[in-house]
Amino acid sequence: MSRIRQTTDRLADGREIVYFDDAGTSARPRRADARELDPRPATPTMRFDPLSAEWVTVATARQGRVHLPPAEFDPLAPQSPTNPSEIPDDYDVAVFENRSPSFGPGTATDELAAAVHDDATVERAGIGAARPAIGRCEVVCFSPDHAGSFGTQSTLRARTVVEAWAERTRALSAVPGIEQVFPFENRGVEIGVTLHHPHGQIYGYPYVPQRIRRICASVEEHGRRLFADILDSERRGPRVLIEGEHFTAFVPFAARWPVEVQLMAHRQVPDLAETTDAERDELAQLTLRLARGLDALYDAPLPYIAGWLQAPVAEHRDDVRLTWQLTSPRRAADKLKHLAGSESVMGAWVADINPEEGAARLRDAIAKADETRPVEPLSTGAGADHA
């Protein structure tokens, strides 16, 4: 069985596009992008909030992005004579630079960005500080089909998506100026999705975001075994959902959201790029089971955010552990949790559902999905080739 194939090309305006072909498919030539496109937007600016010690990006070009287009004008479908989409040719999984990015297209190798990047740290920023929002934003298309999500893909396709996440994490971690890589999927209009096409994104940040900084601070306070100790505690508790050879899924003890799941690696692995083929094979199956279980919870597609928590590019590589986190604001079949005053202003969370009860409901939903939409086994030999 041939392995996952990775090939790289350029779009008409110079943006990079990377194709990942499912294992077992034949090599195919790629059609060039013949569109006439406007120049890429200028790199946005990020401003420093001295009260929260956070950077806020001002990316006004995002105001013009496509919003819920009809299927015949899907910008993530393969190009056709009537649809000048972003992807020139047919594909299995495709990753390309976002046309309206929150970060980039400038990087630390550009003259302007390089001049200020060394000062673009939380510690050295102050009132009125502003910097170019250098970095990279990419779109990850899970399928050429207009409708669906990650959970609707085959195991073979999910394995290709996992490969794309891992290899793009590796590539973006090597881009000058990028300090954190974050692959994620937004699913559902309730979350704010603007395209129905099954896809996710990858952000390469020019700083370590607040969530990861807090995790790193917790590791420094607790000790380097923080993730190991959390996993040991959860595996002995009542909130485990699925336990594999390399990963365990559980509802965390202090879950904030009505639906919240963490899938944590058993060994210390800092990011997807450092996973083995065996770990990626298992991820393809476990992530599908979890995604399908979420949809079985209310017998309807569940709005969610699924994101990979990874170690920063240059620090805490030996103690921040790869974790997939899924959260949904749906607290009942017809009700959503809204982040009102306490959560939004004070950051003081109030959980609507007991985590143990939530775990029991999710176990039942996963069992139901395993019966009605079982995840097929993955054939061996699905590693990667690079061209």
Give the topology.
Elements: E1 4-10, E2 16-21, E3 45-49, E4 54-58, E5 93-97, H1 111-117, E6 130-132, E7 136-141, H2 155-173, E8 180-187, E9 199-205, H3 210-222, H4 226-235, E10 240-243, E11 247-250, E12 259-265, H5 277-297, E13 304-309, E14 323-328, E15 330-332, E16 335-336, H6 341-346, H7 355-372, E17 384-386
Parallel strand pairs: 1-17
Antiparallel strand pairs: 1-2, 2-5, 3-4, 3-6, 5-7, 7-9, 8-9, 8-13, 10-11, 11-12, 12-14, 13-14, 15-16
Helix pairs in contact: 2-5, 5-7
InterPro entries: GalP_UDPtransf1, GalP_UDPtransf1_His-AS, GalP_Utransf_C, GalP_Utransf_N, HIT-like_sf
Organism: Agrococcus citreus
GO molecular function, one term: nucleotidyltransferase activity
Describe this structure in words.
By secondary structure, the chain is of the alpha+beta class. The protein has two domains: 4-210, HIT family, subunit A (2-Layer Sandwich); 212-372, HIT-like (HIT family, subunit A, 2-Layer Sandwich), CATH 3.30.428. It has seven helices and 17 strands. The strands form three sheets. A twelve-stranded mixed beta sheet has the order 10-11-12-14-13-8-9-7-5-2-1-17, sandwiched between helices. Strand 1 (4-10) and strand 2 (16-21) form a beta hairpin. Helix 5 (277-297) packs across helix 7. The longest helix has 21 residues, at 277-297. The two termini are 17 Å apart. 43% of the residues are buried.
